[in-house]
Specification:
452 residues; mainly alpha; 19 helices
Amino acid sequence: MSQLPNEPSVVDLSLFTNPQRSIQAMRNCGVITKDEDQAALLVVKRINHGAFADYSAGGMSDELKKAIAGVQAEFRQKLQTMPYQQLVEGGHVNKLLDDYLDLLVKGSEKKLYHLDNEALTGREENDPKRFNELRAAEESKRKKYSDEKSYYAGNPEIVKDAARRFESLVKHQGYLPVGKILAMSGACGVEGEAAADLVQDVLGVVAARSVKSMLAKFVDDASLQRYEADPKANEVRIKALAETIAGMTSPLHSLRDFDKESPELDRINALKTLLSAQMHYAIMQERSPAQCIAVEREARHHAKECTDVVMSLAYDYMGIGPAVSDRRVQAIRANLKAEMERDGIRLIPGEEAKLRAAILARKSAEDLLQTAHGDQQQVGRINALAAAADVQVTTMPLKKIPHIIGEDLLDVLKEKLAQRNVVVPDAETLAGFLKTELKRRAETPATPTLAA
């Protein structure tokens, strides 16, 4: 394929080490061929997600959820009943963005008010570093939404121009993942099935490399061995390692309903998401330094296996489909293989990689079920992610099995004490048992699973 107009010569995603939003990554590697298309598609994404994203299960207050639902309902009605030109030129799309971003700003402000003025709960109550991280992240979101709101309000024609250019995307009745927005836009230089395949190929590489970046946060074997030899002396380093990995991963409550695009891309994204949540909880448990090292060794091994699998899946995915002969796909695929060889990542044949993905996804999902604490919405999301990775959740349902995270002692006690044949003579006896168990935890190097 000949070089497309305005196509950058760099098509190596490994050069972009910082997290990149998908539309930016697509421009970086030449899938989107023009800067103005990137800018307009970012507006279109915000319009579509402002009108159709589901906030019912998010961390917002019920009041803000209701307000966003009202803004969405008003715009959807106009979209269905009003001539499109009138919708755009009359500023109704601008109003959607202004109202929507205003509510996102208020959501962040409400969370900041809680952190600054109300009773703290969870880890931020006793962990100043965690408090600062939460507050900095929320302040960053507030500033982002506020700046975006001000920019669009001050430049209304930017919103209108994007809506005029991509009418079919704005008029689409339903939420569109970024990949589908890109594929349907025509901004890739090809159209139809070839565009969809090209976009999904590259999003697969983006997702696979984020798993590799997660693995890179672990120290090497030599450092782990040194920490393990004298965990008490290396306590600060061990805690720093845990904080680094926790900051690179996502807690369970950040999981959202899975955006389905293609089986191949979904498989990579599902395994990545399950691994991220599993690593977060595995690393953040209260343990002695010796126990932390045992868990981190196990977690690093699991993350390495997942990295080999997702990078292999991304490589295999680019070798099939309508975009296989696209020059950009061929260049990115060649670069990916060279990167794997350089970094010691095993290239696994496609069918074997799919089987390994299902095995690893089940392991992560069953580990995570323990942290859902019976929340059926979260259990449903864990099952949906596992199913997207080809885990046979119907014929062989997931079970709560501790792998890396370990068992919650209080959950174990609750289950034991619920049995009719368990007798606790008095509170003093139970308190003594808890003290003994906590002392054992602190003094005994343990495997990642803490037995009842």
